[in-house]
Amino acid sequence: MSKKKKRATSQRKNEITKGIFTVLEKEPSKSFNYKQIASKLGIADTRDRNALIKRLGQLKATDRILEVERGKFKKKPTLHTYYTGKVDLTTSGNAYIITEDFEDDIFVPYNKLNKAFHGDMVEIFLRPRRNGKKPEGEIFKVLERRKNSYVGIVDKQKTFAFVRPTDPKMYTDIFIPLDKLKKAKDGDKVVVTLGNWPDDAESPYGEVAEILGKPGEHNTEIHSILAEYGLPYEFPYEVEQFAKTLDTSIKESEIAKRRDMRDVLTFTIDPKDAKDFDDALSFRKLENGNYEIGIHIADVSHYVQPDTVLEDEAYERATSVYLVDRVVPMLPEVLSNLACSLRPNEEKYTFSAIFEMDENARLINQWFGRTAINSNERFAYEEAQHVIETKQAKIPKEISIREDAYTISNEVVDAILTFDKLAKIMRKQRMDAGAISFDKIEVRFNLNARNEPEGVYFKEAKDANKLIEEFMLLANRKVAEFIDKQKKTFVYRIHDEPDEEKLLALNGVISRFGHAIDLKDKKSLNNSLNQLLKDVKGKKEQNLVDTLTIRSMSKAIYTTENIGHYGLGFEYYTHFTSPIRRYPDVMVHRLLQHYLDGGKPPKDTLYEDKCKHSSDMELLAASAERDSIKYMQIKFMEDHRDQKFLGVISGVTEWGIYVEIMENKCEGMVRIRDIKDDYYVFDERNFAIVGERTKRMYQLGDEVYVMVKETDLIKRHLDFSLVGRKK
Prior knowledge:
Elements: H1 3-26, H2 34-41, H3 46-61, E1 66-69, E2 72-74, E3 82-89, E4 95-98, E5 106-108, E6 121-126, E7 137-144, E8 149-156, E9 160-165, E10 174-177, E11 189-194, E12 206-213, H4 218-228, H5 237-245, H6 252-255, E13 259-260, E14 266-270, E15 279-285, E16 291-298, H7 300-303, H8 309-317, E17 321-322, E18 327-328, H9 333-339, E19 347-357, E20 363-374, E21 377-380, H10 381-390, E22 394-395, E23 406-407, H11 410-432, E24 442-447, E25 453-459, H12 463-484, E26 492-494, H13 500-510, H14 522-535, H15 542-552, E27 557-559, H16 583-596, H17 604-638, E28 645-653, E29 656-661, E30 667-671, E31 680-683, E32 688-691, E33 697-699, E34 703-712, E35 717-725
Parallel strand pairs: 13-20, 14-21
Antiparallel strand pairs: 1-2, 3-4, 3-6, 4-5, 6-7, 8-9, 8-11, 9-10, 11-12, 14-15, 15-16, 16-19, 17-18, 19-20, 22-23, 24-25, 26-27, 28-29, 28-34, 29-30, 31-32, 32-33, 34-35
Helix pairs in contact: 1-3, 4-17, 11-12, 13-15
């Protein structure tokens, strides 16, 4: 099924659901069979009729409609029609309920929340619509809490205590009886577990689960970030112990079951500070003049077996979390840094995609399966880049990860240069086919021994990075294509087409900088997006435009329903290449091996639930990573209070302007009330604030000078004072 067809199917399902409720609610005293409902909805074809029957069954099973007699349905006799949805709380205290029953989100004022919090699944009923108003409702009951623990600061009184949550979307403090306070002191930052919320109480009851430390201290704040997202920072004892009992020795009896590639030239290319190496490349020339290229991935599924505490923990975590000063791994160190890590001169079990290619990067043959390798070399990206740029075998001391300068073999130089040549051909083919080139600036910090930031630098993807990227993309794409063509249950990484409204909004913003995107058709759009990203490179607006462009895109997710990957321009795509740090890759390895062994496809519902969990955890991890960068940026700016910085206005709101400092990408706010030379009002249409008396305008994209006014490590907020406009 094509992308468009699958999207249309999902949309049609929603339309049918709404249609069912429309028919039943119009005549609530009557009952209807599927034929009568189909007639009223104008459903004539078999596919839609079957979808209607299936949906009626689902709505009955979830108790949303009544089956009064076999095959006859009617509206539930209630005072209200109840709907289920998810709470999206705004910082003002009001909420919107996201539900598949309505196109528009349902507005709920703060006094009708009925003790619901942000992210909770709730049951709501609609209030009568006022003329022209969007739907408005009232929360009837909380069905499921999104989270049961919050990070906050203890406010201790004589006979009781409160915890004030740091989450801006948590609108109430939490009451703590003194016997539930543990040993927490006044002012401590803690994790508190929610208890009940009695009807006569102003606040929910809670209990201190963990004392994080004093607010503002480095470890306290890093652990706070993890706790806020419900992410662990250590492994349970039983998981660590289980991992230590694993037999991680390499056995010839196991190698005999695999393709033995220990004698083939193999090496890894990774960041210089990497500890886990989950992919390696092998290279050899064939007698026919073609190349055999092996993409070897750590065989995590050999060690992480189903129905073990290790498997359960890996699934729950679903991803490694990369904070500014540490990695919170998905797997214990004995696996992530030792047994599964493809370290040089160590025999390892791997899962491989092996391709025969000609010199023009045309694919001649492919093979997938379990292998054994012995990596000959380990390179940092900087070292491989040096080889690509100079074509020399000598690695100088200043970039060497072996302390001193050293020389590599001509065989390895030839392999790196061949990989680079092939990667550039594949990248061009990918771009020509409509892929979008996101090379977003990544902020990194130089930290001292106390994890304090001494400097900021930007990670730039060079040819060596792109070389690895292209071969990983090739393996991921070909594995997905191999299974999809067999029509078997599988885990895909999909990326839907962008939302047109978001693209129009993006066009509005970038026009301020003299840029535009062409929305005529997919090819025009993709070409203009690539041109835009190329045009802004190195300019003041690059980070802003990159960020806004990414936000205009759909989010990539894991699912069993393949619709392709829009951003990469691939019809088939999965994640196969990083099982040390991503659980979906482990699922892909298992399914691929299952099919290679002739196994029958399992039910896709089981894997769809796991895909949903993996996508959710990926989102949480990304949010935690962003928060840790924000924290470190603020910490860095604390030591630069007296310095004047040139920045660019990156956002405009009714309460102030956001300014991003050009040299370090730190973003803070200049509050309107703090600009004293005039009374400024928000001009939404022009993305600007305008002085009422002087008509002075500060607009999105303007360059301004700022100084640090206030830093708040606890709330992770940075305030600037405006010095003036760049002349």
